[in-house]
Amino acid sequence: MQLKPQGFLVALKLIAWGEQRWTYARLAQELGLSASEAHAAVKRGLQAGLLLQNRATVAPVAEASSAEAPPRAPRQMPDRSFDRGCPPPLPSTP
Questions:
Q1: Is 34 a member of any domain?
Q2: Can you spell out the DSSP letters for the chain?
Q3: Where is this region: Disordered (predicted)?
């Protein structure tokens, strides 16, 4: 199973929450995903090694929170700068 951008985003969100308890519904709402997509992203994160499952909880891997994020992650996230709004104005030349 290939890691999708949502999987990386879910791992980052769980890092930001720290030790807080979470549900798939809350995770989905906060990230703008459906509950099923949040669940699938957690499954992909577990398979990719970004997340670890300890009994009834899922937590991010400590190394995933370092500056050494998975090297493939930036390349897997598409550039969506063209999806919404207008491009920023070009800087004026003196």
A1: yes
A2: ----HHHHHHHHHHHHHTT----HHHHHHHHT--HHHHHHHHHHHHHHTSEEEETTEEEE-GGGGSS---TTHHHHS---TTSSSPPPPPPPP-
A3: 61-94
Q: Taking a C-beta distance cutoff of 8 angstroms, is the pair 23, 35 a contact? A: no
Q: What pLDDT shows up at residue 56?
A: 67
Residue 10 inside a domain? The answer is yes
Residue 93 corresponds to which tokens in the numbers above? 């030349």
CA distances from 3 to 19, 34, 41, 56, 90 (A): 24, 17, 8, 22, 35
Q: How many domains does the chain have?
A: 1
* Residue 52: pLDDT over 60: yes
At residue 69, what is the residue type?
A
Q: CB-based burial of residue 17 (10 Å sphere; 0-12 exposed, 13-18 middle, 19+ buried)?
A: middle
* Domain enclosing residue 14, as ranges: 5-48
